[in-house]
Amino acid sequence: MKRNLHRFASITLAAAMALGAASAIAQVTVGGAMMYPTKDIIDNAVNSKDHTTLVAAVKAAGLVDTLKGPGPFTVFAPTNKAFAALPAGTVDTLLKPENKDKLTTILTYHVVAGNMDSKMLMKAIKDGKGTASLKTVSGGTLTAKSSGKKVMITDENGGTANVTIADVKQSNGVIHVVDKVLLPK
Fold it and tell me: What are the CA-CA distances from residue 117 to residues 10, 30, 113, 137, 184 (Å)?
């Protein structure tokens, strides 16, 4: 009996360790920070050193409370490098209070209602025979395409962003990191 109890305890411990290792592997690092699926989009994004411009823009647009809300939201999150690639002065101009409406439109153009992970995106692309139209919270449309397992998002002006980190799970949705700022018409 004692031997069976010891064996059961050993098996239980091994299973717990294996599950712990699996959950550690499933966590994603973005901008040098761990992203936790128990935190909301904002609480994770503020810790990414690659998204400081995006976080500043979200604050300037007054969207913090919205993105901390229940969602779910799918966010295509441009990196600092993506914002830096815009024409000189664009970000500074957008962050001015008088441009809040334009900034809000651009930021909400990166958000799709729902929790669309990469599997759902790839299914939508397949069902659309190579493309998927995504209606954004701003009312615009993004087009998703794939090449192998790589997903690209194209804006209404023909600009294309690559998803560089997919499926960053949040308590209120999912983030896909992109390498370009997407612009509505």
Answer: 37, 16, 12, 17, 22
